[in-house]
Amino acid sequence: MKIREALKQQREQRHWSQQELADQLQISRQSISKWERGAALPSFANVVAISDLFHLSIDQLIRGDAELMTKLTVKKEEDIGPVGRIIYGGLFWGAIGFLITWALGIGYEDAEELVQLPLVIVFVSLLLTIYANQKQHRVPLSRAVIWLSIGLIALMVLPMISMDVSAAMAAIPGNVRAGWNAGQRGGW
């Protein structure tokens, strides 16, 4: 028996609506609907929660569902996970921010001052979002937490990139730097 059939059977035996089951599992009704239609598969954490709720072994839930067993046992290599997305996203957007500040001719000191207020705002927003998620007993990182973390890293990296480029530019001999600066002003 596939998990979608077992889930629907267990829910109907208890005379629960999809919303009532969703409330028990602290997820959306749409997730239950997708699982029962076979449009999506539950995560391992949700399989454990379903198993606990219906007093069924995990084996009873997934043994007949080859697709779910494959999903739970084979980790996608290309999926870097939320922490990887936060780190790579932050570095990417920090580099984009650097390119924008460089194109606008904003130096290290100005860039550092420019990001201080957004940095504080993003940090406080991140803390409030994490607090709200914990209060709702959501364990995985929400999209808001991931995006706020990316923004935080990007804002933290921007002045560092500007400082490193400024230091590298200072080390370039004067005649090369003069040509570089002329190129920045459209002299090339």
From TrEMBL:
Native species: Levilactobacillus lanxiensis
Transmembrane intervals: 86-108, 114-132, 144-161
Signal peptide location: none
Protein name: Helix-turn-helix domain-containing protein
Record carries keyword Transmembrane helix: yes
Record CDD domains: HTH_XRE (cd00093)
Keywords: DNA-binding, Membrane, Transmembrane, Transmembrane helix
Stored SMART domains: HTH_XRE
Domain HTH cro/C1-type: 7-61
InterPro entries, alphabetized: Cro/C1-type_HTH (IPR001387), Lambda_DNA-bd_dom_sf (IPR010982)
Domain of life: Bacteria
Gene3D superfamilies from the UniProt entry: lambda repressor-like DNA-binding domains
Any Pfam family the entry gives: HTH_3
